[in-house]
Design brief:
The chain has helices at about 25-35, 60-65, 75-80, and strands at about 1-5, 10-15, 45-55, 70-75. The chain is α/β, with parallel strands linked by helices and about 80 residues long.
Length: about 80
């Protein structure tokens, strides 16, 4: 998924993996590669990434998300707590 905020010049790239496997860094890296194909405000936009997973994330990806302010992770438990 892709969402744009024209006023803030932000773009959000999202990916949803609804399987029994935990999502790892590879999914994030593939999403980042796909984001390069979107030609909206190249070099003049703030990018954000969001990943959804039915069964959570690898420890490595969770640690990475704590280091990056442009990455959010949502597993089923977190989604349920919001709803």
């Amino acid at each position: 998924m892709v969402a744009l905020n024209e006023k803030k010049k932000e773009i959000l790239f999202g990916e949803c993996k609804w399987s029994k496997n935990r999502v790892g860094r590879k999914v994030l890296y593939e999403l980042e590669e796909k984001s390069e194909e979107v030609k909206w405000r190249i070099g003049r936009r703030k990018e954000r990434f969001i990943l959804f997973s039915k069964n959570g994330f690898t420890r490595e990806l969770e640690e990475l998300s704590r280091e990056r302010d442009d990455l959010e992770l949502y597993d089923l438990k977190r989604i349920e707590s919001i709803l």
